[in-house]
Amino acid sequence: MSLEYGLYTPRSTTLHSLDPRAKITWAFIMTALCAVYNNPNYLAFVYILVVVTGLVSRMTLKRYALVIFNSLVFLMASLVMWGLRISAMGLGEPFLIIPLLGWTFTDLGFLYAVANCFRIVIPVTAFLILFTVTRPPDLTQGLARMKLPYRFGFILTLALQYVPIMFRETKQIMEAQMSRGLELRGGNIIQRAKGYIPIFIPLMVRMMKMTIQLSMSMESRCFGAGKDRTYLVKIKFEKRDYAFTLFWIALLIVASGLRLLGYGVLPVPFM
Q1: What confidence tier does 114 reach under pLDDT thresholds 50, 70, 90?
Q2: Is residue 143 part of a domain?
Q3: Do 42 and 93 fall into the same domain?
Q4: What is the 3-state secondary structure (H, E, C) of 120-153?
Q5: Position 94 in a domain
Q6: Model confidence at 165, in pLDDT bands (50, 70, 90)?
Q7: How far apart are CA 251 and CA 47, in angstroms?
């Protein structure tokens, strides 16, 4: 399903039927595991766990392609930022040389760059899966039941609902401007960037107008006047939710124990 219709994708899977609090806990544990290790071998195992979870959720191939593309972008950026920095410090042995640019990567610099790429991709993928398998109202209720302010959950789900709206509005504006003769595919990068100005300005105007209308609607309905919030369908933590949550908490405890024993750490002066 395209992002035009929202991040949530209805499916009949075990992950979809879990309590949103269990899925939120899983996403944060995956993020925490990225802070435990800086060795790409260990982080690759964490990434495999995330991918397997995504397969269970039956996430669409388009979203996997989006994740893979972003992973390659983050890897290139990480190689330039961290790979060259570690290599310039003289840590490790020469591993990759690019004579055209005058760059030399050491094995330790390359491994640390890959590790930092995983540290970015794993949380992004985990939360993408979370938003794919959790309805926005359930996500709001789950965050509120975890003792977070209701406004926080409302703002988060509202932002997620704006994603498909922006996609639809952008598509409509592009089609309207192209029907008037706007060229977006020809020319160099600068010309293409200038061509998107007639799209960006109407999009911003529309989004600001929608925001004003939403704020007026919320104010007219006395949003935030009552402290206790009621829900049409109340979520309930069941046995499978406890089992799912305890499994990932146990995994985090084991991973932290291995880290304290010195496993999964590269010999670099910073984490």
Answers
A1: confident
A2: no
A3: yes
A4: HHHHHHHHHHHHHHCCHHHHHHHHHHCCCCHHHH
A5: yes
A6: confident
A7: 14
Give the pLDDT score at 101. 67
The total of structural domains in the chain comes to 2
Whether 100 and 154 share a structural domain? no
- Domain hosting 23: range is 1-134+238-271
| Mean model confidence pLDDT for the chain | 84
Per-residue pLDDT, 271 = 61
Q: Which of 194, 163, 162, 158 is nearest to 177 (CA)?
A: 194
* 162, amino acid identity: Y
Which DSSP symbol is given to 68? H
Q: Is residue 145 part of a domain?
A: no
| Structure-token pair, residue 224 | 């935030």
Listed residue (113, 69, 70, 76) closest to 91, CA to CA: 113
Rounded Cα distance between 68 and 88, Å, is 29
Give 185's DSSP letter: S
Altogether, the residues listed in the chain come to a count of 271
Lowest-pLDDT choice from 58-72, 95-109, 185-199: 95-109
* DSSP label at residue 5: G
Shared domain for 46 and 128, answered yes or no, is yes
Token digits of residue 89? 């410090």
Q: What is the mean pLDDT of residues 170-181?
A: 85
